[in-house]
Structure formats: structure tokens, C-alpha cells
């Protein structure tokens, strides 16, 4: 089973890229972030025509998350992260797919930091951590994946010294990510490639992709009930080089 995550940075504007990638790689389950489309504007028919069914939670102009599957029933369990009834951002969606609990997330960017946006990021992180603990306690196979907007270590950034004041790399952010992982989750890419340079995002400016001046901010966290099934993982870096593409590349894992 192949599971992928992809911050599409606008599902309608990047639809040709998304459809081409789906056709070429044929993942079984896909989590999408940054749909940037209200609920009624999600391109459901195009996704169906590509061979996938979908659930999604949209939001006008911003955010938005979805789960797609190829030949597998998607049973949505929630489309909001618990813990704050006042939070209206479309940043989390969860479903049972193929016997796995899949949580797709788009964690807040948090810039500028310090400030209200950074406070919201850390509060959202705390809610995610509490919900993740409940998911672990269930004992089920769980995959938590998406755009975490976290650079976990210096290894995960080109010239990390340039990011020390950024919300993605501030000590509070990295500590929050470590606290989450330390519950018992496995960082899938680092399990298989502990020492390699791996990026999932390249800015549109200063030829970042051409220089491979990237960041690793899209992650797969696996629960103990599924960790042993991990057999491969990677980044479809070439997609970042396509015309009118997202600034993220798709990231994937393969499970037995």
C-alpha cells in the first residue's frame, strides 16, 4: 500500500499537476493540504475521473485538506481537530481507509514569530499532541501525515542558520515536534534515511529548487501498530520542477 501527502498550494490552479502526478505514481491513499477552495469548489469530478474517491474540508482562499483513495472506502471520523470550538480553520481531516486511521493535517505556519500567529501555531500543536495521544492509546494502525510546517533538525534545512528566527525552526516549534514524536511515533523518512539530505519544499524565490535549497517540512508519523510495516519512503522531487507546480513535492511511504 502506497500512501502519499502533497501540499498542492491551490487544488484548482494546480489541478493539471495533481492529475498528472496521480496518473504517473498511482498512490493508494493521498492526503492533500492547502486546497485554497471552498467546499463546493473542490474538483470532485476530475478526481473521480482519475480513479479516486475523496473526502475534503474546504475553506475559501486559505487552508483546506482532503483524503483521496483508489478503490478503498473512506470512512470520515472527523474534519476538525478537537480542543477549540472557536477554531474555524480547515486544517485537519481523519478517516479510516484500508484498515488504517489516516490523519491529514496542515499545521499553521506561525510567522511572524513571536506574535499571535506563532501563539496559534503552538496552541494548535498542543491540540494535535493531545489528540495524537488518544490515537496511540487506541492501539490501531495510525498514520499522521501532512505539512507540519516544522523543520525538525538542522539536517532538514539548507543553511539552517538562516532559519533560526523563523516559526518553522524556532526552539519552541522543534520542541513541540519532538514532544509529539516522543509519544511513540516513528518519523518514517528518518527511520529509513537517518543521515541523508531530504527536502520536501523549495521556495519559489532565488532558484531554490535549482540550487536544491530546500526544507523538510512534510512528514509521516507512524504508530507502533504500523511502524513495522514500513518498507519504503521517498519524495517525488521531480514534480517540483514541473510547470505551474506547488512549492512542495509529494512525499510517500509504502507499507506491507
From TrEMBL:
Q: Keyword check for Manganese, yes or no.
A: yes
- Cofactor binding summary note: Probably binds two magnesium or manganese ions per subunit.
The site (Transition state stabilizer) lies at 149
Site note Interaction with DNA substrate applies to 248
Write down the position(s) of the site called Important for catalytic activity.
Answer: 218
Give a yes or no for keyword Metal-binding in this entry: yes
Supply the alphabetized keyword list. Hydrolase, Magnesium, Manganese, Metal-binding
- What is the name of the protein in this document? Exodeoxyribonuclease III
Amino acid at each position: 500500500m502506497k500512501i502519499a501527502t502533497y501540499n498542492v498550494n491551490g487544488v484548482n490552479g494546480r489541478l493539471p499537476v495533481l492529475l498528472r502526478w496521480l496518473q504517473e505514481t498511482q498512490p493508494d491513499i493521498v492526503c492533500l493540504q492547502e486546497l485554497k477552495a471552498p467546499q463546493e469548489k473542490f474538483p470532485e469530478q476530475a478526481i473521480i475521473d482519475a480513479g479516486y474517491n475523496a473526502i475534503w474540508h474546504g475553506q475559501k482562499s486559505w487552508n483546506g485538506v482532503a483524503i483521496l483513495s483508489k478503490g478503498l472506502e473512506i470512512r470520515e471520523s472527523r474534519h476538525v481537530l478537537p480542543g477549540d470550538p472557536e477554531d474555524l480553520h480547515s486544517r485537519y481531516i481523519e478517516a479510516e481507509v484500508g484498515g488504517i486511521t489516516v490523519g491529514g493535517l496542515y499545521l499553521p505556519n506561525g510567522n511572524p514569530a513571536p506574535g499571535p500567529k506563532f501563539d496559534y501555531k503552538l496552541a494548535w500543536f498542543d491540540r494535535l499532541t493531545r489528540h495524537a495521544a488518544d490515537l496511540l492509546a487506541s492501539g490501531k494502525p495510525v498514520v499522521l501525515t501532512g505539512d507540519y510546517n516544522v523543520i525538525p533538525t538542522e539536517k532538514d534545512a539548507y543553511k539552517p542558520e538562516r532559519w533560526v528566527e523563523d516559526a518553522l525552526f524556532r526552539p519552541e516549534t522543534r520542541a513541540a515536534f519532538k514532544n509529539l514524536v516522543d509519544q511513540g511515533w516513528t518519523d518514517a523518512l528518518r527511520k529509513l534515511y537517518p543521515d541523508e539530505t531530504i527536502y520536501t519544499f523549495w521556495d519559489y524565490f532565488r532558484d531554490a529548487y535549482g540550487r536544491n535549497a530546500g526544507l523538510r517540512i512534510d512528514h509521516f508519523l507512524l504508530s507502533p501498530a504500523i511502524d513495522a510495516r514500513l518498507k519504503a519512503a521517498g519524495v517525488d522531487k521531480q514534480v517540483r520542477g514541473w510547470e505551474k507546480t506547488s512549492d512542495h513535492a509529494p512525499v510517500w511511504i509504502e507499507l506491507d
